[in-house]
Amino acid sequence: MKVETKAKLEAEEIIERIEADEDLRLLVSRISPEDLPYILERIPREDRGRLIRLLPEEVAGKILPRLPSEILESIIQEIDRERLIKIAVSLPADELSDLLNKLPIHWKKRLSKWLPSWKLEEVKPLLAYPPDTAGGLMTNRIPIFFENLEIDRVVKEFTVRLRFDEYDTSHYIYAVDSKERLKGVIPSRELLLTPRDKKLKEVVTQPRAVVKPATDQEEAARIVARYDLIELPVVDDEGKLLGAITVDDVIDVIVRESSEDLLKLAATVKVTAPYLAAKITDLVKKRVLWLLMLCLVEVVVAFIISCFEKVISATIALAFFIPLISSTGGNSGVQTSTLVIRGLATGELGLRDLLRILVKESLVSTLLGLLISPFLFALSFAVTFQFWVSLVLALAIIIIIFVVNLMGGVLPLFVARIGIDPATISAPLVTTVADAIGLTIYFLVAILILS
Q1: Does the pLDDT value for residue 181 go beyond 90?
Q2: DSSP label of 77
Q3: Share of the chain above pLDDT 70, in %
């Protein structure tokens, strides 16, 4: 028999016990706070309310901003007003901003009215920016000091404020001038080792990178990764320091953006809720429009096949390889588009690289075609024992891979140029367009050779 200890129970075991109607009061102390979002997504709604009411306020404060909006609304309703205010006041400004942005409008207005005026003033600057920008991602509770202060005074004030938990992050000290413009930064560890008689402006260095508040959060994440930063300052057009983005927020952005791009590549509109918590109607809405659009494109493919009815009826063996042509061309195009989209997402590629992409994909696709063509010729001849049909297939596949690969490389750049997320060029769409191109080339080659 399993002997239980006071060690943290695994999340799956907790879920099983909740579903078995065990007393939640006995389980709360054994739940790891990091596992709570995972657990809350998977237990019935009534159990969510009971569990959140039993959690200590500091634990509830840590998990509420991390919950998806669909679950958050149902949980907020289970928390009484006074407790909700205490939790909101205890949150850092950036986390409270995230929480408010996830709430429905009526709950956002209600909670904003309940907050003390000093807390509302603290979070207002962050609420002024969309949540998917650097301004919405940053925290404004950072160590900021005037550049003319002596190091001794800066250190004393910094340690006192740090003791009273006035900062959300304290890796760097930021120096500003009388107009609050950023003049330089210094790691807090270096500051403590600096001679105390110097002035702050004498020891700070220029930040390696800064961003504007309207910068997209994905671009901010790329900058943090490129320069290996712990914090990224956010300044306005006049250079005034507004706040800083921390690396833990960047990690959250990378996870969200990766999930969103993955959904787009699968021809699915962004789903904000976890799969298990999402409503069936929402999932249908997110997917049905793409499927209908792809059906319309496939009608074009069917029309192309009907245009070559005489060729097919004259040589029935050509029809045997229609699925092969479709899948090979589509898969090849998806491979290319995925590589280019990844390059655009990581900053490795840009619009200026169009010619390089065309040259590289021309060489790659030619080699791929020459490698695959003999294999398909042998395969076709083994199935049909018809030399000319096998030759059609072998020649067509070289041209198809060449054309479709170029399409897969250019399309993401084209949509990026007109301001659309390149991930929108999804795998099903590229495959479907490749079907139309591939079958047209296949039958044209057949007409030229078999006639």
Answers
A1: yes
A2: T
A3: 91
Task: State residue 277's pLDDT score.
Answer: 67
What pLDDT digit, counting tens, does each position of 315-330 carry?
889 999 999 998 898 8
What pLDDT was estimated at residue 195?
92
H or E segment and range at residue 145: strand 144-146
- Mean pLDDT of the residues in the chain: 85
**What is the topology classification, in CATH, of domain 11-128?**
MgtE N-terminal fold (1.25.60)
Superfamily of domain 144-265 in the CATH hierarchy: CBS-domain (3.10.580.10)
Mean pLDDT of 220-244: 92
Q: Which fold has domain 280-450?
A: Tetracycline Repressor; domain 2 (1.10.357)
The vertex-120 CA angle with 114 and 121, nearest 5°, equals: 155
Residue whose tokens read 């083994």: 382
pLDDT at 392: 94
Locate the domains of the chain by residue range: 11-128, 144-265, 280-450
Checking if the pLDDT of 193 tops 70, the result is yes
pLDDT at 5 over 50: no
